[in-house]
Amino acid sequence: MTSPTSNSDLYVYCNGRTSSSSSPKDPQTAMASSGRPSAVATNRNMNWLIHGLYTRKDYALCRKLIDRQLTINYDKEYLYYTKGLILRDEDHPTEAINCFQLAIIANKKSSENYKELAKTLFSMGRFKQSLEVFLKAETLLERPDHDVYHHIGELFYRNFGQPKAGVPEAKEYLKQAIMCGKHVASYKILAEIYIEEGDNVKAIEMIENCLQ
C-alpha cells in the first residue's frame, strides 16, 4: 500500500536543499539567490539602454540592439514602439506603422501605441484613419494629452470628422489641448476659427498667447 504523500514530497530538491515549487520568486529575489540578473531585470536594463540611445539619436546602434533583443526578449512592446519611432524619424512610415501595430498587439491598453500610430498615419496624409486611431487613443488616456487633443481638433476642423463632428467639436478639443500647456499650433487654429466666426477679440487673444 502506498504511504500518504508527505509534505516533503511537495518540494523539489536541488543540490541537497529544498525549495517550494508553488510560489515563484520575484525578479529581485531570483537575482540575489542566483548571483546573476534575472531575465526581467536584464530586459528592463536593456530598455533603459535603448531609451538612452534613442534620445541621443544613435539610431544605428539603437536599431541593432532592438533587433537583437527582439530575438530573445519576451516583452516586445517597448522594442516595437521605439523601433517605430526610429523608422518614422528616418522617413520609413510604412515600416513604422507595422511596428506600432505590433506594439498594439502586445499591449492593447496603451494609449501611447495608438497615438504614435495615429501620428504616423497623419504624417502620411491618411487623415480619416488617423482620426479613428486618435479617437481610440483618447479612450485609453490615463491623463490629459496635448498631442491627442490637438490632432483630433485639427482633423475635426479640417472636416475629416464629418458628418459627426466639425468646427464646434474642433474648438472644444483645441481648448483642451491648450489647457495642457502653451502650444502654438493649437492657438493658431483656434485663432483661425474665431476669425471665421467673426470674433476678432478672441482671435487676437489667441494670437497674443502665441507670442507670449
From TrEMBL:
Name a single GO cellular component.
Answer: ciliary basal body
Q: Kinase: present as a keyword of the record? A: no
* Region entry Disordered, spans: 17-38
Q: Does the keyword Repeat apply?
A: yes
User: What Gene3D superfamilies does UniProt report for this protein, alphabetically?
Assistant: Tetratricopeptide repeat domain
Please provide the record's keywords in A-Z order.
Repeat, TPR repeat
Q: Which SUPFAM superfamilies match?
A: TPR-like (SSF48452)
Q: What processes does the entry annotate via GO biological process terms?
A: cilium assembly; protein localization to cilium
Tell me the protein family, please.
Answer: Belongs to the BBS4 family.
Q: Which PANTHER family match?
A: BARDET-BIEDL SYNDROME 4 PROTEIN, PTHR44186
Protein known as: Tetratricopeptide repeat protein, tpr
The protein's gene is named 6038384
